[in-house]
Amino acid sequence: MRNLIVKYLEDHIEDLSYEEINDVLEIPPKTDMGDYAFPCFALAKSYKKAPHIIAQEIAQDFKAVDFIEKTQPMGPYINFFVSKEKYAQLIIEDYKNTQMYGQSNIGANKSIVIDYSSPNIAKKFHIGHLRTTIIGNALYNIFNMLGYKSVGINHLGDWGTQFGKLIVAYKKWGNKDKVLENGIDELTSIYVKFHDEAEKNPELEDEAREWFVKMELGNEEALELWKWFKEISLNEFERVYKMLNIEFDSYAGESFYIDKAEGVIEEINSKGILESSEGAKVVNLDEYDMPPCLITKKDGSSLYATRDIAAAMYRKKTYDFHKCLYVTGLEQKLHFSQWFKVIEKMGHQWSKDLEHVPYGLVRMEEGKLSSRKGNVILVEDLLNQSTDKTKAIIEEKNPHLDNKENVAKQIGVGAIIFNDLYNSRIKDVVFSWDKVLNFDGETGPYVQYTHTRAASVLSKANYEFNKDDEVDYGLYTEASTFALLKEINKFPQVIIDSANKLEPYLISRYVVDLAQAFNKFYHDNQIIVEDNKVKNARLLLVYMVKDIIKSGLGLIGIEAPEKM
Ligand code: ARG
């Protein structure tokens, strides 16, 4: 419909191109202002008149067509009221003509590298890494839906001085059986011990540094231990990823770039931008008002930024990305700004395609989650708790449901994901169980519940979708029905917007709006009625809603159960 309106306007207005009209054409906030509104500001120059006068004048020029019922000037706007019947036809045909509604090929032949989750090994997977995991996964799905080739990379934090410390700690206080039994818990506890001891005995720090240098030089004993720590960590992380239904295309973490770092350092040097500073090597960033970016330490070992630079070079070569995204907390903003500038100073045009995608903190209602106080919240515990709480709700509301375990997991995990993606990334998430698991609020369970409601109507009616079934488009003009169709029609654009803004919450908001529009329609219209034509017209709508809720939830990484 939008296309039609824009083309129609283009035919009537000589001074503006299709793109110019498309850019300004608005959807009015209220239905009594029509379905589309064209602001006349852009014409003020060529007409040499005030926009509201232009609106008055040219509104008369718009000849009646089958898809426009009424044209009306209003202030500086011209409002268009579309023919509901024609509009219904366009939307439904559009739906029927796509394999998967909302899918497109605007990203064909372009790859988007997304670096997300990326926890540090030998540490518990705590709630701090939940957001990057969820946001990254959503972006991954969203870009794929638009025809891009998403490449999901888990840039594991598996290299750095901390492993020197862990090796020292293990050699001094470690116990193999305990590590085998308690996994990361045990590693964490000896790591904490290291810090306590090092306060009394600073030589431990030197020892740790030496072990890290050994690691960098390929010492067998050091690498053997490190590999083992990594395996243990991955086992635990994978449990969480499985609960979240998340997979990665690559687990190339920081250690993968050690042998590539040297060449990169040489390249930086050859560009004449590497400077010595108290024994370390840095790239000066004074001109950007940033502290220098550290490239090598005094002892020659690499740093977090060095490995990121090497990784970016490798990714450009391997995936020739259109964009490379880094989903991390806001506190790493400076880190990314710094090394993006180093790549730019190295003369790489594509530095502009690197983008940091930051997000805010997760806080419990009572206050900030703190790891220092020891009350870290582990993702696995959180997901399990949510699933258990959901199970209790199911026991109470629908005790005879089949497959209770699995449904509880779909709802419990979905609720956590949804809560995380309900606001713009940068906002802090305030976590409260009452809100997360409220089946009537703007929540994951509410949307999932709406999906099951649609599923149950369809199964009661034994409905089967057939693309070629005839539909009477005149049956969609009732207010809540038409409003629902318009909501359906927004889906493709919402996906595009969420990709452009890197904001999965647009999808979450959308599925809530769609669910609400559906529930209004469902309340106002009986679906399974005598008249077959009417019944089928309504069932088709129910079918479309169910399908779109399912894909919308799928995009943000949430499952849609058939029953709950
Ligand atoms: N491991 C880091 C952390 O836990 C996140 C890594 C993000 N990705 C990157 N390429 N730097 O904070």
From TrEMBL:
Catalytic reaction annotation: tRNA(Arg) + L-arginine + ATP = L-arginyl-tRNA(Arg) + AMP + diphosphate
Keyword Cytoplasm part of the UniProt annotation: yes
Domain Arginyl tRNA synthetase N-terminal as annotated: residue spans: 3-82
SUPFAM superfamilies, A to Z: Anticodon-binding domain of a subclass of class I aminoacyl-tRNA synthetases (SSF47323), Arginyl-tRNA synthetase (ArgRS), N-terminal 'additional' domain (SSF55190), Nucleotidylyl transferase (SSF52374)
Taxonomy, superkingdom: Bacteria
Subcellular location: Cytoplasm
Cellular component terms (Gene Ontology): cytoplasm
Gene3D superfamilies in alphabetical order: Arginyl tRNA synthetase N-terminal domain, HUPs, Isoleucyl-tRNA Synthetase, Domain 1
Chief place of localization: cytoplasm
Similarity comment text for this entry: Belongs to the class-I aminoacyl-tRNA synthetase family.
HAMAP family the record matches: Arg_tRNA_synth
Protein's name in the database: Arginine--tRNA ligase
Species: Natranaerovirga hydrolytica
Taxonomic lineage of the native organism: Bacteria, Bacillati, Bacillota, Clostridia, Lachnospirales
